[in-house]
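note to self: dont lose this again. the chain is below, predicted strucutre after it. 332 aa total, dont forget to put it in the shared folder this time
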Amino acid sequence: MPSLSASLFYKEVDLLKPISFDKVFQFEKFNSLCNGFVQLGRYSEVSNRTNVFELQKGSGRRWTVEKDLGQLRQTHHLYDEYEIIRIVGKNPFLWHDHWPVKDYAKIFECLVLVEEISSEADKVVSKIKEIGLEERRRVGSLEKGIDVPYVAVHMRIEKDWMIHCKKLEQRLNVSEICSSKEQIMQRVGNIAGLKTPIVIYLAVADDLLEDNSILAGWNEGLLPFEKKKLGVLDIYKKQPYLIQSAIDYEVCLRSDVFVGNSFSTFSSLVVLDRTQKMISMGGTELCGLDARWPSYAYNLEGESNGPRSWAANMSDLSLQAISYGSNHISCP
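---
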């Protein structure tokens, strides 16, 4: 069973505490839904923990199908005596960059949040919809029988991201990775066909945010809320950093419109999850407001100076774009 950890740097070492998979997702449910595809086991079920085989892996993200297969052919006969294989090396984590996207996306159908996290996300979404309902009643734009929609924006402007994205732009010689607060607000405000008034939930890592003016400057009809203004800060503050991220992920996933950064793994996984859900429900329109759950990338310019429409490329043969981000996204 894997542990989950945050990819942070700068001064946030205290936020890097890993959390066991079953503290976030339902373990037995995962094995039941993914039976025949992927299965997880508990470390406590291992009978001999002292007899360990160490497998040398270099930089985990640079391994290919051929390298993995070659190593397995050379060493598979050694594994029979061991219950534990310890992966060691410079970056010893296993990251399946060489999985086809459509195979990797199957895992999302097996991931079910534990009740505690799911119920906390319910509270946040209910609060967002409650505010949206009140505003629509106030202006007389409430349509009977229609659920009150909201937009979730993964607003990546925290200090850890700004350091990372600027270095990434220099390394890749690309200028469409970092986005300012003003650019994000402008592009979200230019989403064609977005009906207002509508609540804009800003998913930000509060502990890493140095700009306290993210609620100012939005277009009329767009109602920006972050955790404090929404009145849900206490829900998040009692949780460790990773659980806060899991709640925000679920709030973004459930949004009627999602806007993120195409070079953010968090945003890319939300879009992959939403794309997979639309396909599973028989959806054929995956891009733009005609889609069931449309997504956009605010770091890339789309039509009318809005964000570019975004759906995961399910035919991609590797997870390169999702792992590291890309400015080539599958929507035109």
